[in-house]
Design goal:
The protein is an alpha/beta fold. It has helices at residues 12-16, 26-37, 61-67, 83-92, 105-112, 116-135, 161-174, 190-200, 220-229, 257-267, 275-282, 285-289, 297-300, 311-315, and strands spanning 7-10, 43-48, 75-80, 96-102, 142-148, 178-182, 209-212, 234-237.
């Protein structure tokens, strides 16, 4: 199989590190992002401006954004929860603000500590603030709105497609052009994914739609391909398969970047990402984090890496 180019957005510096129990020093975060910037990514979610009390692992977001070596052509994204976070992200020089709200009321209360209606109201203020900043030439940032738990919630179960489509329309009507559908807890299946993606693409152009899958139940890459075949072209992934939502039971395991890029490489889908260098970077993660990571291709190597024939077999 071959097809149109896939855009892989690297999220390990944010989604990957947010649940790590061991503090990753600021210098190491910067080094990781700088390394990723050299591998062919056009988009990197470099950090978060959530309250340090909520996500202490990312409390150095402003310093990280101010010190990374920005590569021309790479969009550095910041996840933000509210107006205060948006202001801090603008000051730090984020290129894009990723606003997150859950389709599930229960998960939004657990994650954002507010009802969905309150989140939407706050987003309106952020849209207005960024528009004013652009007019005064203080900053020119793009906005992306994530619909978390779009495929299911661990507290409420299956989320109605009409609910997700309504939120997507509300985001767009506000002036938020980019949309992410997030399978926050790995509850999606490929048939469900294909059906929802086709409907969302009637509202959002493929260039503005991102899919964010978790491999919690082993369906991450299958869901990526189902979405790709349905017309989606941009996907989040995390180096080593790191990450997960700290506010949802059992939600570990983002789709692994090198496993996804390897799949694309094997099936003729262009990504523009240096796969061998990506694998080498992933293999450094256990030393950085103090534990093994879920990546499969980093352990096994590329399928083209042949091995010597065992002596016993050669002599037979």
């Amino acid at each position: 199989m071959s097809g149109e180019r896939m855009i892989v957005q690297e999220v390990s510096p944010r989604d990957g590190l947010q649940i790590e129990p061991t503090w990753v020093p600021t210098e190491e975060k910067i080094a990781l992002i700088d390394s990723l910037s050299e591998l062919g990514f056009s988009r990197i979610e470099a950090g978060s401006f959530v309250s340090p009390k909520a996500i202490p692992a990312l409390r150095d977001g402003a310093e990280v954004f101010s010190r990374i070596a920005r590569k021309p052509g790479v969009v550095y994204v910041a996840l933000i929860p509210n107006l205060q976070g948006a202001q801090r992200a603008l000051q730090a020089g984020a290129d894009e603000l990723n606003l997150v709200m859950s389709a599930s009321q229960a998960h939004n209360r657990a994650n954002m500590r507010m009802r969905c209606e309150e989140s939407l109201s706050a987003f309106s203020g952020i849209v207005e603030m960024t528009a004013q900043a652009k007019q005064t030439r203080q900053a020119a940032v793009s906005l992306n709105g994530t619909v978390a738990t779009a495929f299911g919630c661990p507290f409420e179960g299956r989320i109605a497609e009409d609910r997700v489509l309504s939120l997507v329309r509300q985001y767009r009507e506000m002036g938020i052009q980019g949309i992410t559908l997030a399978d926050t807890t790995g509850m999606a299946n490929p048939r469900q994914v294909a059906t929802l993606v086709k409907q969302v693409l009637d509202i959002v152009p493929a260039a503005a739609l991102t899919l964010h899958f978790h491999n919690t139940r082993g369906l991450g890459l299958v869901n990526v391909m189902a979405a790709y075949e349905a017309g989606a072209r941009r996907f989040d992934a995390s180096l080593g398969g790191l990450g997960g939502c700290p506010f949802a039971p059992g939600a570990s395991g983002n789709v692994c970047t090198e496993d996804l890029v390897n799949l694309c490489h094997e099936t003729g889908i262009e990504t523009g990402i240096d796969l061998p260098a990506l694998i080498r970077l992933s293999r450094k993660l256990p030393a950085l984090l103090g534990h093994d990571v879920p990546s499969q291709v980093a352990k096994a190597g590329l399928a083209t890496e042949l091995h010597p024939v065992p002596v016993r077999a050669a002599a037979a």
